[in-house]
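Predicting holo structure, nicotinamide-adenine-dinucleotide bound.
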Amino acid sequence: MVLGKLIKKIMNKDKIAIVGLGYVGLPLARLFATKYSVVGFDINTDRISELMSGIDSTLEVDNETLQAVLVKESTEANGLFCTNELDQIKDCNYYIITVPTPVDKNNRPILTPLIKASETVGAVLKPGAIVVYESTVYPGATEEDCVPVLERVSGLTFNKDFYAGYSPERINPGDKEHTVDKILKVTSGSTPEIGKKVDDLYKAVITAGTHLAPTIKVAEASKVIENSQRDINIAFVNELAKIFNLMDINTHDVLEAAGTKWNFLPFKPGLVGGHCIGVDPYYLAQKAQENGYHPEIILAGRRLNDGMGAYVASEVIKLMISKDIKIKNANILVLGITFKENCPDVRNTKAVDVIVALKEYGTEVTIYDPWANVEEVNYEYGLKSTKKIPLDKFDAIVLTVSHKEFLTIDFSKIKNEKSIIYDVKNILSESIKDKTL
Ligand SMILES: NC(=O)c1ccc[n+]([C@@H]2O[C@H](COP(=O)([O-])OP(=O)(O)OC[C@H]3O[C@@H](n4cnc5c(N)ncnc54)[C@H](O)[C@@H]3O)[C@@H](O)[C@H]2O)c1
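Done. Tokens:
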């Protein structure tokens, strides 16, 4: 037993701190904890308490899986210990930073959490350590914005005393199939040798394998263009939806027909919310502008997608008018307020744009979402929502998110004869819905 422990210690003496235990950090920390000693660090003490009691409110890691790796104190043995105490991460040799990278109200990148996390790590950084950033950023952020903070706070010299890496995260919240270990991961390092080390670290746990990019900037750029590409493609089909709606052609039928060609890309129209696809293109745009280039396609895609909530609301109102439904004080039920299906995340959800626009038309909106935390919806948006389907008759029902629960609703119970059903996601059967986006 003692010998076994000793061998393990000699074979694997790496100790990893994961800074930021949210949607990205926790699944990663849990995965690394199966093969390494991991300390999860977060400034949110409530988050630390829930995790240490074996619960993940983001639902990304189920309680049993989390509890299987949790340890009561940080040692050199494999396992995950979560804390908000700086002292607990001072003997780590890898720091992986997974803090948020949002935009402000003018869609400009906010690097504050990244800078603060770099200050935290800088305060405990020891010679030989490697700091890997996972947060989505623009090309150059790691070496130009974060490394100088690490140098300033630690007093150490970059690429001499300590090193950096960047490995973007590709997880898809709520997706239980493409979990972190099953998604090929791009890695990079501040020197070729460090790139190899970072790559080996991830290879040990990512069963789907890794792709070692030649530089940190390449890895950073690769992430930001993955989401920008999706954003632009969705903007294109959203534009198609607007055109075909004017012509009374069903966009989904068109996409299905065109999709029979081998190289037609399968994008669908919809609301683009969340903190990735709808945010990351602004990071790229900001850096492009700093370099004297004013992006056209990237920002056109953003403008188009950002206007879809108001567009959906106007389509709903037109449909109601066509059925002689009185708009003022009409009772509208909105199905879904999270930014995506089967996931409790309500941050930057564009369902809110639909709701706000519907209210501006003078309608009364009820929000039903079995996944969204009622307090969080109220806190973030000042809106009331319910987790239980309201037993009322609505003049209009607007499905904005494709939560699985919505497929089993008995619509006859919540509508009257004239009511309309608008299905943004096109998941309801033809006999139920009146129109889709
Ligand atoms: N959620 C996704 O689907 C996803 C996918 C790929 C990439 N990303 C990127 O990963 C990054 C993290 O996203 P997320 O969704 O996990 O965010 P999140 O908000 O779920 O989690 C971030 C965590 O970091 C903590 N935190 C904030 N500042 C901190 C600090 N200074 N020190 C320690 N902890 C701090 C917060 O308390 C929170 O628990 C972002 O850059 C995001 O763009 C997210």
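The first strand starts at residue 15 and ends at 19.
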